[in-house]
Amino acid sequence: MGLLPRVIRLASGPGAGRPTIHGAPDSGRGRLFTGGPGFLRVSGPRPVAGVRFEAMLGTMNVIVSPISKLGELVNRSVGGFGRFTGFAGTTAYWIVTQPSSWTRWRILAPQIYAVGVLSIPVVALTGMFIGMILALEGFAQFAAIGQEDRIGGVINASVTKQIGPVLAAVMVAGRVGGALAAELGTMKVTEQLEALKAMGSDPIRVLVVPRLVACIIMTPILTIYSDILGAWGAWFVVVEIFGVPGADYWYHSAAFVTWWEPVGGLSKSLFFGAAIGLAACYKGFFCRPGAAGVGNAATAAFVSSFIAIIMINLVLAKFLNEFRNLVDPLEASFFF
């Protein structure tokens, strides 16, 4: 009973406007102090202290908002990394402890067909045209120093060691990674994953493991196609167009390309396939609801796979070069 009169006296002090009561009819204004409808509002200029306080709040908001957004980004990134780590660990657990989830031909064959067989045309064409482009662009430089007959060795060593595995993996990520993410994302949106859990089956064991194994198996095989077609594409340009003897082309190719180049390239492709399978299945499993969520998951699967391929290639290139220096230092010093 004594609080509101005190508020009115304070609001009527120096620097404040005249208090008025709004929200109640004239006949009921007296009921403000007895619990009736209405509220108190001060009209006129606000006190200077209030203006300063609002300015201070605005300044604090400008400072705190970027920090808050950064914290939210870090929290979301750490949480996503934790989910991906758990997802990858669960997948590895099922691969090791339940080989029957991927060794049965009737389970694995459809995935091998979808991942590998259907990707052969695009991978082969890409490899062939890359070999032809390298030959066209590099022939003038080699001819300028009188070493045009050695261009085949340089191209084939580059293709088998670096370009072939990376291009094959990128093609698989573009054609297969997006499809896997869209397929699993659609199953999540339509609650098919929840139905599998309700029936007592682990969706990772049933859906992810066969697709991941198919990516790991077929990416090296597709890399072989890319390497072979790249070598033949370069041969066509160097021998058939520029007139370099075919015997010289293959002789220098055999001299430059040792057992290490294809083995190193195929070793990389195993990791590339694992990265593509994990990234695509993870994005599909954790996509957002709706058609837009599925589409975003497919796009994110390709982008994540591509970034992973480039990063893995960098790390493995350094590791394999160092390992080669330890295993065969004489040959490594000759070529590097």
Describe the structure.
- This protein folds into two domains: 1-71, no CATH class; 85-335, no CATH class.
- The chain is globular.
- The protein has a two-stranded antiparallel ribbon with strand order 1-2.
- By secondary structure, the chain is mainly α.
- The protein has twelve helices and two strands; from the N terminus they run αββααααααααααα.
- Mean pLDDT is 81; it is low at 15-44 and 332-336.
Poorly predicted ranges (pLDDT <50, ≥5 residues)? Answer: 15-44, 332-336
Count of helix runs = 12
Question: Helix- and strand-based class?
Answer: mainly alpha
Helix-strand string = HEEHHHHHHHHHHH
Shape summary:
globular
User: Using only CA atoms, what is the Rg?
Assistant: 34 Å
Which strand order do you get reading across the main beta sheet? 1-2
Strand content: under 5%
**Total domains:** 2
Task: State the total count of DSSP E strands.
Answer: 2
Largest sheet: 2 strands, antiparallel
Average of the residue pLDDT scores: 81
Share of helical residues: over 70%
The termini sit apart by 92 Å
Give descriptors for this structure.
336 residues; mainly alpha; 2 domains; 12 helices; 2 strands; disordered C terminus
